[in-house]
Automatic annotation (TrEMBL):
PANTHER family: INTERMEMBRANE PHOSPHOLIPID TRANSPORT SYSTEM BINDING PROTEIN MLAC (PTHR36573). Residues 1-28 form the signal peptide. This is Toluene tolerance protein. It holds the Pfam family MlaC. Keywords: Signal.
Amino acid sequence: MTTWNRRTVLTGACGAALLLAAGLPVRAADDKGDPYAFVVDLTNAVLEEIRKDPKLHAAEPARVRALVDTYLLPAADFTMMTRMTVGPKWRQASPEQKARLEKGFQELLIRVYSGALTNVTDERCELRPTRRRPPADEMVIRTLLKSSGKNDVGIDYRIYRNKAGAWKVVDVNVEGIWMVENYRSQFASVLSQDGIDGLIAMLETRTDELAAKNGSAAGTK
């Protein structure tokens, strides 16, 4: 049985997990209903959407951008995600800096994880065989990503219920690595040395580098 490289797992599963929040218009994915069904049904709907759309499966930038703009941003709480990732220094940022941090983090995640779409094959999401707890306003939903010929991958989703009663995804854990914590540790050194403006510059520079790299790769196909 093929063993998934840890970095590949983290990149691929987090990519799928971020797109989980896309809110694709499927009957079973009720963002105000059962949180377990919301996570599992929506993840599987997204995986199926990727499989049937060649442009999305090929991670064409325009198609990925359209998917994100239409579905991901309204459903995922990127403000909270960014605040959690930046940490205490978020409170010191001006409104303009907060907006640039959030936009920069969004763009970085899109560039980093969109390439994972090309790896989607027959993956399917299932709940882990653990006792289901009654819904609470903040929850961690534990799932397994299953695929033939590959080891199961454990993915946990941190969600919360907002004031409107809708579930929002704010973090993802792949095989013991929480995405927010992982980025927070990377950003901490930049913040300590270069401050908030330094982190903004790093996010924008890194995103531009990935865009150029992805564009070059696309041109060689």
